[in-house]
Amino acid sequence: MEDPENVQFDTVDFSPKVTEFKDLTDFLIRYCVATLGLPQTMFFDESASNRATMIGKIQLAISTVINPLREQFGRQICDQWYQRWFELLYKDTLRF
């Protein structure tokens, strides 16, 4: 046990610095968004920024749905041979 005469007391500030922490968090989020080009919806809820929500949803739809379909249809069309044969067979005809 400690001797009560040797015990030392220090004051500790238990009041959190909420506003400073919030400002720092907002700054870091804006820095990440500006640096990485991420939509703000990755960090905020939908009520915070409607335009960013819309842009994020559009980018997500383009990258996950539309681009794979474009690539798939592009491969299918490129693999089709009948258009090339059609052009070779009827190249002397003025109108197809």
Description:
The chain has 96 residues and is an all-alpha fold. It has one domain (18-89). It contains three helices and no strands. The longest helix has 30 residues, at 50-79. It is rod-shaped, with a radius of gyration of 31 Å. The model has no long low-confidence stretch (mean pLDDT 75).
Structural features:
about 100 residues, mainly alpha
Question: What's the quick description here?
Answer:
The protein has 96 residues and is mainly α.
Number of domain units: 1
- SSE topology string: HHH
Q: Low-confidence parts, pLDDT < 50 over ≥5 residues?
A: none
Overall helicity: 55-70%
Question: What is this structure's SSE topology?
Answer:
Blueprint: H1 18-36, H2 50-79, H3 82-89
